[in-house]
Amino acid sequence: MTKKIDFYFDFISPYSYLAHKRIISLNNRDKFNYKAILLGGLHNLGGITAPAFNQKKMKNMKNDCMLIAEKNKIDFMWNDKFPINSLNLMRGYLFVDDNKKNQFFDICFDAYWKNNFDISKDENIKRILLECKIELEEFESGIKDQKIKDELKNLTNQAFQNDVFGAPTFVVNNKLFWGQDRLDYALEELKN
User: Fold this and answer.
1) Which of 76, 97, 149, 162 could form an S-S bond across to 69 if both were Cys, CB 3.0 to 4.6 Å?
2) What is the rounded distance in angstroms from the CA atom of residue 11 to the CA atom of residue 130?
3) More confident call, 192 vs 14
4) Ordered domains of the chain (ranges, CATH)
5) How far apart are CA 45 and CA 155, in angstroms?
6) Residue 187: which residues within 8 A CB-CB, separation 6 or more?
7) Predicted structure pTM score
8) Can you give the pLDDT at residue 100?
9) What pLDDT score was predicted for residue 88?
C-alpha cells in the first residue's frame, strides 16, 4: 500500500478549500487521504475560540484568504454566510458512495467558497445532490444513520487525540503540518 498524507478538513474552512485547490493544481489528489472532521466539535474539544468569533482575526482571515487565492490563481469568494453549520454535509461526505465522494467534495466546496451559497440551506443541499445524482431521501436517511453520526464524531475525536486542532491539517510519517501554507512541507515529508 502506498503511503499517503492524511488531510483533515471541514467544508466550513476556507483554508481547507484553498489547500484542496492547490492539491488539485499540483495534480496530487491521489497522494491524500481526505479525513472529514467537524471543526466546531474539534474546537470545542480543545477549548479553542474559532477566528470567526473574533472580529480582528476574522478581518485578517478574509484578507489572508483573498491574498492566497490571488497568488495561487484560485477562484475564491468569501462567503456572506460564514460561518455555517456544516454537520449535515460533513456527514454526507462520509455517507456518499466512494465513486461520488470526489464529486460531492468538489461541488460542496465550490458552492460555499466559490459560488457564495449557504450550503446549510435545504435548497442548496438539494442542488448539490442533484448535481451529484444523489437521491435526496437516501441522503437524508443516510446522514441520520447512527453509524455515520458515530463515524464523524469518532474521526473528530481521533483527530483531537492526535493533536489536530484546526483545518486543514496534514499528517504524514507521524508529523503534523497545520495550515494550507504547510502543504509543501507535507509533500516533502511524503518523499522521505
Assistant:
1) 76
2) 18
3) 14
4) 5-191 (3.40.30.10)
5) 13
6) 5, 26, 28, 31
7) 0.94
8) 96
9) 96
